Amino acid sequence: MDWKRFGFIFLIIVVLFGVVVLVGQVKSPPIVIITSMLATTIAVATPLTLGALSGVFCERAGVVNIGIEGMMLSSAFFGWLAAIYMFHIFNFGVGISITVGALFAMVAGALMALLLAVLSITYKVDQIIGGTVINILAVGLTGFLNRQLFFGSGSVFGGNVPNSPGVLPTIHIPIREIFSPLCGDAASCLQVVTSINKVFDQKPIAISAILLVFIAHYVLFNTRWGLRTRAVGEHPKAADTVGINVIKMRYANVLIGGALAGLAGAYFTIESVPSFEPLLTNGRGFISLAAMIFGNWTPIGSWTAALVFGASQALNINIQIFRDVIPPQWAFLQQSYVVGLIPYILTMIILTGIIGRTTPPAADGVPYEK
Amino acid sequence: MQSQIQSSSPTKSLLRTVLDAMLIPFLAILTAVVLGGIIIVLVRGNPFLAYAGLIQGSFGSARALSETSVWATPYIFAGLAVALAFKGGLFNIGAEGQLALGAVATALIGYALPEWLGIDIPAIIHLPLAIIVGMAAGAFWAGIVGFLKAYTGGHEVINTIMMNYIALNSISFLLNGPMKDRDPNNVIARTPLIAESARMPVIFDGLRIHWGFVLALLAAFLVWWMLSKSTLGFEIRTVGLNPDAAKYAGVNVKRIIILTMALSGMLAGLAGALEVTGLNYRHELGFSIGYGFDAIAIALLGKSHPLGVVLAAILFAAMRNGATRMQFLTQLPVDLISMLQALILLFVAADAIIRYIYRIRVQSERVVLTRGWGG
Question: What percent of chain A stands above pLDDT 70?
């Protein structure tokens, strides 16, 4: 990551936040808007961050993964399914059910990744085709099982979709409690502290996504495992010569990537909303890939890129609060379809390389033949 | 590797070549059908009844055949679109957006042009014009991606997907706003009906089969001719196999990349245009969903050969069409078809698995389909 790219990311985020602040300032003070935007940005960037990390692990080991979308979709479904089964069939408590759901989502993601690994590493199928197979299979599998298990006349739940046990709770970090005594009676100071606290009140998967960014960075660049992973992705023949098991390293990293994509899937049905609908990932897996490319295949770079996409989504969400005060010359902001285009257009601009070219791992996408 | 690219030895008869080419797809379908049957048993269904329903619903009557052809028409075009791009070494995942955009553009010309001009346009001008605009819209949409690929290296896989979402979002906006059917009773996001002069004549009264199917078969022939007999086709295939070699041989690689994407998008746009002028007489939001992925599966199953694409498209059309009958007989959800298709695609893509299961030693043609991020 170079400064040009960080500068671009910073600029876009400032513009996106600025628009909402300008529109909303007649209704709320800027600090409230900015912190609310930040909180939303971090939350909605979660699946993108995890998806991008998934891509980083796979591609650093030399396996192109365009199946992230499908891995997310299937793990969102199976995580949700596991939570419902735990809750309604095995009568576990809410907490255990959704925790098991989240773990199951990661397993489901890893299983889809295993399929990708078998196809692309063992059978040397064109990796982009392999990923597309994952994507199509996920749509078919989740669509079929969703209908068959919940809506069919002979289904377990007799045609009624049962209530999901719920979503993961927000973890409250007591910033307000610690710092509010310092404010004394100043109302504005209290407001600032309360607003800032909102940014830190995130849910478990969102928090773990940020932690995982730094863990992934450490693992990839400071451990033997990371060195081997990168060697396998850059020059597998050389890695093989010094005794690294190329096939094993690739399998392991693709499975890690799958589990990360699975956690991203869990975000949708275990953390965000307690329900599943077909095709709910809506291209987030592909945007993750763009974030990974823009982040030059590094965890921290990918994360900052994911934040840009998160911010543009946060703009679309937060601007709805101020619908009635949008000035007429900015009327297009009322059209969520139009504002919703921003992440997709951003992705294409980023891929042109205007904001600095990126270099994929040298052996990315090339099956290893001894 | 080099020897595998050579398809078959010249001593083999044509029939033998065709049979060899069809062996793996056939076995892939067979394996998927058997696996699908096991899944049906697992969800307590009757696989024989299900498959009987599928065949009955797709080929069992004149009406069933007509409906299968209606499904097959956009599948053939979209499948050809993806196959053509594959031949040029490009992966067009965006057939869905190009198709939808073609449909919207055609619908716009179909219903709005007479209003703008204030006159009735004769059908001989209106209908071709509407179709050409639809084709141009698809070609333009994919051409952008080709341009970005040729001049900036932006990968077409992600860009076509992004263009899909941009197309679908924009179309949602148009069909809910400026282009919405102004009928006071209408609550659906759809365009008004197109003028009579922009509609294709029906073939048989009472059946929905339309001239689009005939055009699709014609298009398949033209694509085959273009790819295997024309200079342009040769250049496209050369760029697909080895862009560096093509460059040294004097091919303008950038031009071919843009042209290949535009032609591919044009075929997808034509699919949308024919859906509007031949079948629905309007565009409705959401009707195009799923065509992009199905088109990829069809192109792969047909091994990117136009004849293979036609056969694969008819197979997929038959499955989609027969699914309703299957659901009626067995209460199995229509989505089962999506899973069957995914399994077929899985086995076609990973033909090594099929070779292993059935102990096949012959090496078939190995085609370069896509390239990594760098290309």
Answer: 97
Q: What is the pLDDT of residues B297-342, one digit of tens each?
A: 899 889 899 999 999 999 999 999 998 889 888 888 888 888 888 8
- Best of B141, B319, B370 to disrupt the A interface (most A CBs within 10 Å) is B370
Same-domain status, A34 and A163: no
Given a cut of 90, whether residue B166 has pLDDT beyond it is yes
Residue-range definition of the domain harbouring residue A226: 45-168+203-294
Distance, in Å, from the CA atom of B287 to the CA atom of B271, rounded to the nearest integer, reads: 12
CB contact under 8 A, B296 and A125: no
Q: Is there a single domain that holds both residue A336 and residue A215? A: no
Per the listing, tokens 């921003």 go with A342
Do A274 and A310 reside in the same domain of the chain? no
Distances (CA, A) of B258 to A49, B148, B236, B255: 33, 9, 10, 5
Rounded distance between C-alpha atoms, residue A318 and residue A315, angstroms:
5
Is pLDDT of B98 > 50?
yes
Confidence of residue B372 (pLDDT cuts 50, 70, 90): low
Alpha helices by DSSP H, listed for chain A, are: 3-24, 30-44, 46-60, 68-84, 94-117, 127-146, 175-183, 187-200, 204-222, 224-234, 236-241, 246-266, 284-294, 299-319, 336-339, 342-351
**Residue B202 neighbours by CB under 8 Å, 6+ apart:** B210
**Could you give the ipTM of this predicted complex?**
0.82
pLDDT at B122 exceeding the cut of 80 = yes
Is A329 within a domain?
yes
Percentage of chain A surpassing pLDDT 90? 46
Same domain, A223 and A77: yes
| Burial (0-12, 13-18, 19+ Cβ within 10 Å), A356 | middle
- A253 and A138 belong to one structural domain: yes
**C-alpha dist (Å) from residue A184 to A59, A173, A187, A192, A328:** 53, 21, 9, 13, 42
- Residue of A66, A130, A354 lying closest to B157 (CB–CB): A66
pLDDT computed for residue B328 by the predictor: 87
Asked whether residue A55 is domain-assigned, the answer is: yes
Closest Cβ opposite residue A341 in set B154, B169, B176 = B169
Domain count, chain A: 2
In a domain, A21, yes or no: yes
Token digits for B254?
Answer: 């950038």
Domain boundary among A294, A313, A335: A294
User: What is the C-alpha to C-alpha distance for residues A88 and B44, in angstroms, rounded to an integer?
Assistant: 22
What token pair was written down for B133? 């605009």
Assigned domain for A198 exists = no
> Is B56 within 8 Å of B273 (Cβ atoms)?
no
Which candidate in A77, A126, A297, A312 is best for mutational testing of the B interface (most B CBs within 10 A)?
A: A126
Q: Which residue, of A242, A262, A294, is where some domain finishes?
A: A294
Do A19 and A119 reside in the same domain of the chain? no
Does residue A64 surpass a pLDDT of 50? yes
- Same domain? A273 vs A249: yes
A153 to B332: CB separation less than 8 angstroms, yes or no: no
**The one-letter amino acid at A214:** F
Q: List the single residue in B with minimal CA-CA distance to A286.
A: B158
Question: Are A31 and A160 in a shared domain?
Answer: no
Say what the pLDDT of residue B8 is.
45
How confident is the prediction for chain B on average, in pLDDT? 88
**What backbone torsions phi and psi does residue A277 show, to the nearest 5 degrees?**
-135, 150
Task: Give residue A363's pLDDT.
Answer: 86
- Return d(Cα A12, Cα A190) in angstroms, integer: 30
Global pTM reads 0.88
CA distance B70 to B211: 10
